[in-house]
Amino acid sequence: MTKSIGAVHRGLSMDIKASDIKRRSLVGGAAVLALASGSSSAWGQAKHTVSAPALLAPAPEAAEFEAALRSKFASGGVLNWRGGDVRLKRPIHIDVSRSTVGAGLDLNGARLIADFNDATMRAITIRIPAASKGISLRGMKFFDGTFIAESPALDALGLVCLTKQSWIYSWKIMNLDVEQFERDGLFFAGSVFEGELHAVTCASNGRNGMTFRNDGPKGDAGMVSAIAIFGGQLRKNGNSGIETQSGVPYQEPGDLSLRQTQFVENKGPGLNALAGLSRAEGCGFINNGGCGINLMNEGRLSDCRASTNGPQPYLVKAFFNKNGGMVLDNCRIEGFGGFEGKMKLAKVSGAGTVTLRDSGHLVDLDLSGDVDVKVS
């Protein structure tokens, strides 16, 4: 396909100061929010257990931050943190044991630095324990700051609810930069749904920028759904920019919509959507490993752009059954740096239907199996 992509990349609250937080806040919050064992989550194909941190004494500024955050998750308010950067010397694990509305954290530009040197522990975990039923955490918010690991730490932030009988929903994560975590930047598991991510960048993490995982006990597993991502970047992660997973194979989340999100130089696919996706609109895919999107079941792409000088020969790699398929609408591809004319829209196998709408021609596809192509 010869069309050029000129624009593609080439190359509520209370004011709290640290000195104002009293240690008694930690005691008040602990009656509702207890330390407990964390979720099990996938690292590659293996289970990786995340346990609650030992009760080690945190650094003074981190203790004040933790006390304030626990208090807000007990009362349902947003912590308007104005104490500057926080260096975590131990993880923060908050269990929510009663229904809560509107808890959250505004970092006001501060950095949350994970420096506890334990690659099995997450910087912040917000969890409804699987044994707690009928609990809802609604309207949670995290925004305006940076999570960065300066010594090994598992993930930056995890939202975990491994039961279908409790719910973390109607949440927002906005204006965050998340970098250098051992596994994932952001990790979502179980009944974590109706969430929005705005202007979130996850870069240089060991596995995925973001992971969305269906998980929980047999017969009571929680499902991730209705996830909307607006803008942001997933770049230079060790596997995928975004990956969907499941405790049961082939039952990964599929209700995922993205708009104007950039996937750049991830070692694996930019988006690894193993059960498909609802929609990707205006997204960019540059030099990811193998393809921009790895896809099964179904997907719709509109106004997406992809370019490579070799490592990403396809915008999409897909496998469909006879009832599956995808639509590419006004999508463009471009090779550069010696790869001109070599990039293709998709490599598709299995069955199903591929519909091209102002998105190239049959020659822009590599096909195997019984795949029907419609060009308009």
> What is the percentage of strand-forming residues?
35-45%
Instruction: Count every beta strand, where a strand is a DSSP E run of 2 or more residues.
Output: 36
pLDDT below 50 for ≥5 consecutive residues: which ranges?
1-55
Q: Globular, elongated, flat, extended or rod-shaped: what is the shape? A: globular
Main sheet, how many strands, which sense, barrel? 23 strands, parallel
Average pLDDT rating: 88
Gyration radius, in Å: 21 Å
- Structural domains: how many: 2
Class inferred from helices and paired strands: mainly beta
Q: Give the proportion of residues in helices.
A: under 10%
The N- and C-terminal alpha carbons lie at a distance of: 15 Å
- Our count of helices gives 2
Describe this protein's structure:
This protein is mainly beta. It is 6% helix and 44% strand. The protein has 2 helices and 36 strands. The strands form 3 sheets. It has a 23-stranded parallel β-sheet that branches. An 11-stranded parallel β-sheet has the order 6-10-13-16-18-21-24-27-30-33-35, with helices on one face.
